[in-house]
Amino acid sequence: MKNYFTASEFACKCGCGLNNMNQLFIEDLNTARHLAGIPFVITSGTRCPAHNKRTGGLANSSHVSGLAADIRAKDAQERFKVIQALIQLGFNRIGVSKHFVHVDCDTTKPADVMWTY
Q1: What are the pLDDT digits (tens) for 35-60?
Q2: CATH number of the domain bearing residue 56
Q3: Phi (first) and psi of residue 60, to 5 degrees
Q4: 53: which residues sit within 8 A by CB, 6+ positions away?
Q5: CA nearest neighbour of 51 among 16, 82, 94, 77
Q6: Which of 107, 114, 57, 104 is CA-nearest to residue 80?
Q7: 20 to 30 Å CA-CA from 24: which of 53, 65, 93, 105?
Q8: DSSP 66
Q9: Would you say residue 5 lies in a domain?
């Protein structure tokens, strides 16, 4: 299967260079992207603590530990395809916004949950 992502897509957006993404998580995202059949544009991957705070992220955000990503969803159909592929692959922590879908594999947090922003 093609690798759809580059490491730079997951680096902290503040420019600090932090990229501590979990590689198994990225491999699973790659498979989900393949299943969805549409590009997954990563709007947020790793966040350093300072950038996480500036963006309003929770102190215990899964982004800080490299276990989360936000995927752009420009419309309802794209959002549906992203969520459908994530669930099909077994992801069980999904947050839904009008403009993005959050997914994480943080086992320190409750499983089988979906929330809205």
Answers
A1: 999 999 999 999 999 999 999 999 99
A2: 3.30.1380.10
A3: -100, 30
A4: 59
A5: 16
A6: 114
A7: 53
A8: T
A9: no
Using the structure block, give the residue that is written with the tokens 């947050």: 95
The parent domain of residue 50 ranges over 10-116
pTM of the model: 0.96
**Exposure pattern of 59-85 as b/e (b: 16+ CB <10 Å)?**
eebbbbbbbbbbbbbeeeebbebbbeb
In a domain, 79, yes or no: yes
CB-CB contact of 70 with 43 (8 Å): yes
Minimal CA–CA distance to 79: which of 104, 99, 105, 103?
99
Is 19 inside a domain boundary?
yes
